[in-house]
Write a structure and sequence with these properties.
The strands form three sheets. A seven-stranded mixed beta sheet has the order 2-1-3-4-12-11-10, with helices on both faces. The protein is of the alpha/beta class. Strand 11 (154-160) and strand 12 form a beta hairpin. It has five helices and twelve strands. It has a single domain, classed as 3-Layer(aba) Sandwich (Rossmann fold), CATH 3.40.50. The model has no long low-confidence stretch (mean pLDDT 96). It has helices spanning 15-24, 51-60, 63-71, 81-86, 177-185, and strands at 6-9, 29-32, 43-46, 76-79, 89-90, 103-106, 117-120, 130-133, 138-141, 146-151, 154-160, 163-166. The structure holds glutamine (GLN). Residues 48-51, 80-81, 84, 107-108, 134-135 line the site of glutamine.
């Protein structure tokens, strides 16, 4: 039996790169634009982008509630802005976080676009993975969050239940370990 497709929020961000990662792991992807698109999906990816804009768009379309309900029974993977949307609190009042990860997040912790960098991850799960940080947030994790990976002492990949959040962009490059790990939680 072919497994149900994985949804990728397609309002902004690197939708194609996530779809390519999923294809590499033998899974199909479907874009999500509105609440009805969540029907029949095995999980949902919230890609990077601009969390303030994404939050507004989610709210306007009722996708914020629909995703929160979906997340009660399905795994969600959030990357960069996607992670910001998943947390419980941010330093920017324009973001209404979904509360899927018990974490507080500071947007743009590492500076502007030109301060983007690639670094090797440390920690238990994806050691040595080359990770792209693009206007990435800083995360303060709280139990029951599990820290999967760190960079320079800060948690940058987190798991809570079946949900995973990354401060970096695991869809860039060829290393599919984060997507593979997350799919394994479903
Ligand atoms: N800095 C962006 C934000 O706060 C996130 C950047 C990204 O997703 N690469 O929403």
């Amino acid at each position: 039996m072919t497994p149900d497709p994985i949804g990728i929020l397609a309002l902004q961000g690197n939708v194609q790169a996530h779809a390519r990662m999923l294809a590499q792991l033998g899974r199909s992807a479907r874009p999500v634009y509105r609440p009805a698109d969540l029907d029949g999906l095995a999980g949902l990816i919230l890609p990077g982008g601009e969390s303030t804009t994404l939050s507004q768009l989610l709210r306007r379309d009722g996708l914020d509630r629909a995703i929160a309900d979906f997340a009660d029974h399905h795994p969600v993977l959030g990357t960069c802005a996607g992670l910001i949307l998943m947390c419980t609190r941010t330093n920017d009042a324009r973001v209404n976080p979904l509360g899927l990860l018990t974490a507080e997040v500071d947007r743009n912790h590492y500076g502007r676009q030109r301060e983007s960098f690639i670094a090797s991850l440390e920690g238990s799960h994806f050691p040595g993975m080359r990770a792209a940080f693009i206007r990435a947030p800083a995360v303060r994790a709280r139990a029951p969050l599990e820290v999967l990976a760190t960079h320079a002492g800060l948690p940058v990949a987190l798991r809570q239940g079946r949900h995973v959040g990354c401060a970096f962009h695991p869809e860039l490059g060829r290393d599919a370990r984060v997507h593979e790990y997350w799919l394994g939680l479903a």
